[in-house]
Amino acid sequence: MITKLIILLIIVLGVIAIAQLMRVYELSSKLRKTGEQDISDRDNNLNGRMMFIFVLLLYVFVIWLMMKYGWTGRGEAASTIGKETDWLLNLNFIIIFAVFFLTNTLLFYFTYKYVRKAGVKAYYFPHNNKLEMIWTVVPACVLAVIIILGLKKWNEATSESGKEAIRVELFSKQFDWTARYAGTDNKLGRFDYKLTTDKNELGIMTSQSIQSAIDNMEGGVTGLDSISFKLNDENLVFSAIDQQKLETDLSRKTRLLRLLYQMKEHHDKKLDKDAADDIIQKDTLFLCKGREYEFNFRAKDVIHSAYFPHFRAQVNTVPGLTTRFKFTPDISTDEMRVKKNDDKFNYILMCNKICGGAHYKMKMFVVVLEEDEYNRWLKSKENSTFDKIFNAAPAPAAEDASADAAENDTQTPAGGEEKKDTTMVEPKTAFLGRKSLIINKVG
Amino acid sequence: MAAITHDSHGHHDSHAHHDHDHGHHEESFVSKYIFSHDHKMIGKQFLITAVFMGVLAMLLSILFRIQLAWPGESSDFLHFFLGDDWAPKGVLKEDMYLGLVTIHGTIMVFFLLTGGLSGTFSNILIPLQLGARDMASGFLNMLSYWFFFLSSLIMFLSLFVHDGAIFGIQITDANVGDSGPAMAGWTIYPPLSALPQAVSGSGLGMTMWLFSMAIFIAGSLIGSLNYIVTVLNLRTKGMTMTRMPLTIWAFFVTAILGVLSFPVLFSAALLLIMDRLAGTSFYLSDIIVNGEMLTNHGGSPLLFQHLFWFLGHPEVYIVLLPALGLSSEIIATNSRKPIFGYRAMIGSILAIGFLSFIVWGHHMFITGMNPFLGSVFVFTTLLIAIPSAVKVFNYITTLWRGSLVLTPAMLFAIGLVSTFITGGVTGIILADSALDIAIHDTYFVVAHFHIVMGMSAVFGMFAGVYHWFPKMYGRMMNTRLGYAHFWVTIIGAYGVFFPMHFVGIAGAPRRYYDYSVFGQFDTDSYNMIMDLNVIVTVFAIFAALGQLIFLFNFFYSIYRGPKAVQNPWKSNTLEWTTPVEHIHGNWPGELPTVHRWPYDYSKPGAEEDFIPQNVPLAEGEEEH
Ligand code: HEM
Ligand SMILES: [Cu+2]
Ligand SMILES: [Cu+2]
User: Fold this and answer.
1) Is the pLDDT reported for residue A399 higher than 60?
2) What's the whole-model pTM score?
């Protein structure tokens, strides 16, 4: 309280002081018979000089930032495509830095050089076609080069991946990521959001999961049967609001159920096996060094964005729309740790589209393994395939050996508070037979 | 064109007497100061409202900057402003962080720099610089201000939503958790903005945001139509289109952009309101939120983004063009030189105006949009860099061999050119879709748009206030305080926003509540981001305190500043031929006749270094 009063007092006194100073200044300029509009030579020269000094200091600041922080912030790109991005980015940076220095220097230097001087009249120079031509054409040429290089790279980055590419689906929801690997057949099973149940968080489509979704919708405490039972029970009396809520719920579920029955009718049983071997993986995304990955992205609730800063890759995940991209990691996590001399380092998948209160915590570790280690990981996941998890009654196989299989997840409550503690731990790598990833391969 | 000008004279002369009579009415307080039809008073109303909103938005940014620099640390300052609800124990809540960022962005872009900047200066300068007695419709003009005021008020009140109530007045059903202002970012992408279950601000807060913006848009449309009609019809005799000051060209094109693009945002908002209230599925498909499976199917969230950015990109220029227009005028006057390449400047304004409608997709490269469409937007976006470059070079050439008078307005105008360059060049990187993949939605973008749009427009606005203050209030602002304000502001601007590029390069996404999460996986990035965030916040507090100098100078000078002379900056344009005291109808006698372009500064053969537009050509003198 006292401190607040003191601060208030200081502010008030400060304002009064400035006001008084201004009075004095005004009176004195009245004596000198000049108005505020008459800028004295002294002020004019001083400000001109300060402008030039300012731009020099700005350069010092910029160069200091570059030396201290530079492009190194997120380290070397860890994917083949990322390396090309960096190359192009550096080229662009050189160009724009040249423009930045050149034009700012001219601007501030002229401000300093051409301040009003007694007896010097401004040069009447309304236009000059040749000059104007030059600074239309030169930027146009530079931009043409930038566009051509950029579009070439863009086409490459967004082109289809090769047949060999490993297919992985990344599923986003408030506020975490789940990966689904296509399994031995390298084919992802189909999905539909209406199939989502506690047992089938990703809404994967098989004959079984369709039936289970139907059962789920009909039975249970919040199922259709129980709602209509409640509504028809004459002994129960509801408030108008509750009655309304139940009725909306009823019509919503009836509609969904009808669609589920349609799905059941049209479902092709032959597709079941695509989904059966899909591997579901949480918390950590394991990738194999040197293999191309084709990622598909889905969102359950709102838009998120899959952002892999170290691989220079990013795309939004959109409810109702599958998005995709590809990249080939080419530096393993171990190698990167040595390079960065940071044995806690991990690649990361972050959410980069505002999606609610805990947006900033929505992450997934990414670990790039050498081929043999990757295969060992795959082997450890033999029991986490979709059909095994789905059929393990009653709950998903939470105590699977690799310990990172589907954790039974409940819906996140509104308001964005997350259910579990947010400090992330070291990726679980028990399958490697070593506690932490780090091994000092080099010297 | 000739026909139009001619017409307008006839129209004008017939009105002249009638308007003139007006000047002698005794007006009541209400009709003079509140429901005024006079464009000068309306301009001042816009300015004061915008100053208030600007201070508010700046305060919000300081609040969340404190959280970013010292995440999780208790702060009395936060507690003082946000109370136990939003800053229990002095620590900002996650949700409210997003709310503050959203309202900060919304106010800055729409209320300060659209309503404030173009509302103020279009109103004051269009009739005065064209030689008109007032806007085409004084009544609509008044309406446009009151719409603006109402929408500001609603936006402000939305900060106080608590459990579906405002100040204890229950508005929606007593929904616990329906608290806080809109929290989906100033771009309010659905489904986040469409689903009250998804975030606490998407209930009443979002509804208020949408209604506020709908009213804002209505007001801005009325205003813009008025500006366009005035420019086309009410130019005084001799004021051909190619004798108009560049300020007017800028306001004119800005108004056209507004009329063409704001209705699209309006429809986008309308569809969103339908999705929220009427159960339609324009933007929603296949969603399970908070455990509830929605039946919406077939809508597209990308549709909203296309509609939003169809306004959103032109909006950037709606913010920028008036600032560039003001600075063209100020730089020419204070260099005592004609603006270099007057016609090229008009050409670039028109080119920028046109191109700004076909570049919106550069905000959507990584949304899952078709990559081929992306390439088209790369091309159009980089095209727009060309007229922008032309403008910059023309400004620099205007300074060359001038006789510069460095008034505070002039310093701000030069500062604008600098921030326009610095922010503009990084746009080249963001426009390149292949590179945008790596830095989209990071702090690099935040740095880019704050410098090129935020700072440039704010500098332009300050320049305008210092330059036209004598015209608005008949008094002068204090020059020394103006200098102090300029130096604090430019140092603050670069100190706050330049380091943000490096935060972005380190991989920091925007709209994150707490960057210390980086400590869990990348020590390098973590150190860099945390360091820089402190630097940025310290500069931000410094810059914000510096604005107190301006506020003091502004309000003090309104009442106590020394009386202004009629043409303090020895300027050529018509507004300086009106008397210092405001009168209804602007000119006491006949309207001035224009004989030359507005940039006859230091013309060889003339004695003075300026020749106002209403001075007839001397014998044998050529127009520029
Ligand atoms: C005191 C000066 C200012 C400071 C310290 C400041 C700081 C910030 C910061 C830190 C963010 C959050 C970025 C993010 O997480 O995405 C932000 C957002 C934003 N600011 Fe400012 N800002 C200032 C002035 C301005 C001005 C003058 C404008 C006018 C264009 C502006 C427009 C915006 C917009 C549009 C956003 C985005 C909001 C969103 O993400 O929805 N800011 N500002
Ligand atoms: Cu997110
Ligand atoms: Cu844009």
Assistant:
1) no
2) 0.90
